[in-house]
Amino acid sequence: MNGVSETKSVMSYLKWALISTVIGLALGIALGWQTTGTLSGTLTVFFIVAVLAVLEISLSFDNAIVNANKLKDMTPVWQHRFLTWGIIIAVFGMRIVFPLLIVVIAANVGPIDAMIMAAARPEEYARIMHDAHLPIAAFGGTFLMMVALTYFFDHEKDIHWVEWLESRMARYATIKGVEIAFVLALILGFSRLLEGAEQEAFVYSAIYGLLTFLLVEVLGGFLDKTQETTKAAAQGGLGAFLYLEVLDASFSFDGVIGAFALSQNLFVIAIGLGIGAMYVRSMTIMLVERGTLAEYRFLEHGAFYAILILSVIMFCQTLVHIPEVITGLGGAGLIGIALWSSIRWNRSEANGVTQS
């Protein structure tokens, strides 16, 4: 597989993402003309679609790296299923169905009424989405924080990027439930900064996020254990598939909610974020086939640090507004530093081998 992948260019991996970009931007132009009827309005919608796509890509660098880390241990069958079914769920489920579902629950209306509201009363639709931001940020932030801390609190982890910090975290990983205790303490700390209904919504949503992570972990472990004795071909990878879907959903929460700051049109948001999701898929495939995570020693570390910071930012967003651009650039910057550190480490190793 590596021998074949070496002959593939980066552009070949990005083929479907580029095709989706052309189609998405064309749909943006058509939608802009239909909704505004003016050239300036059409160009505005086109620009928003492009910005949303770039924003989603910048927010999803770490998502692609974590996906690749999980996918490399899955069977080829389940890799294919995630990269086909998973992208359908990511694009249509999280970018279209999820925002509609929030409005259905929050406004107590039917799915058809929510769709009509999105098309005819976008201001009201955006208001409901904005009001739902706090519980979504608490849920997603807790889940992502557990994902990141579980990576660092691992006593078998022997490769450290920030040595003084990660070596201690790996050492304390032998204390059972240390990451859960840390997250619960942080939840209680943030909840004290809120009052009344907001405090209650934050705590309940965060606890549900923690429970969701634990349930996915338990289910994944159960399926992995079951496949050792029964139907390995059918079940090998289902637990990881579910884990990746919930993880992708948690990554998407921030982008979907934040997108309403740029546009109140559900369909404009779906097109822009859908383009970005296709690039995540392409980057994931490239990382898996090229073995990039193994080649760049600290790239994975940078991704999990970015996830940890994103989770804290999502908690902070329940108190103050933090622009999504800062979130995206921060994550991309961390991964860039990790890549640079990996390249330096590879060069130093190569020089050491040469000298010896």
Automatic annotation (TrEMBL):
<feature type="transmembrane region" description="Helical">
    <location>
        <begin position="202"/>
        <end position="220"/>
    </location>
</feature>
<protein>
    <submittedName>
        <fullName>DUF475 domain-containing protein</fullName>
    </submittedName>
</protein>
<feature type="transmembrane region" description="Helical">
    <location>
        <begin position="132"/>
        <end position="153"/>
    </location>
</feature>
<feature type="transmembrane region" description="Helical">
    <location>
        <begin position="82"/>
        <end position="107"/>
    </location>
</feature>
<feature type="transmembrane region" description="Helical">
    <location>
        <begin position="302"/>
        <end position="320"/>
    </location>
</feature>
<feature type="transmembrane region" description="Helical">
    <location>
        <begin position="12"/>
        <end position="33"/>
    </location>
</feature>
<keyword id="KW-0812">Transmembrane</keyword>
<keyword id="KW-0472">Membrane</keyword>
<feature type="transmembrane region" description="Helical">
    <location>
        <begin position="326"/>
        <end position="343"/>
    </location>
</feature>
<dbReference type="Pfam" id="PF04332">
    <property type="entry name" value="DUF475"/>
</dbReference>
<feature type="transmembrane region" description="Helical">
    <location>
        <begin position="173"/>
        <end position="190"/>
    </location>
</feature>
<dbReference type="InterPro" id="IPR007427">
    <property type="entry name" value="DUF475"/>
</dbReference>
<feature type="transmembrane region" description="Helical">
    <location>
        <begin position="257"/>
        <end position="281"/>
    </location>
</feature>
<keyword id="KW-1133">Transmembrane helix</keyword>
<feature type="transmembrane region" description="Helical">
    <location>
        <begin position="39"/>
        <end position="61"/>
    </location>
</feature>
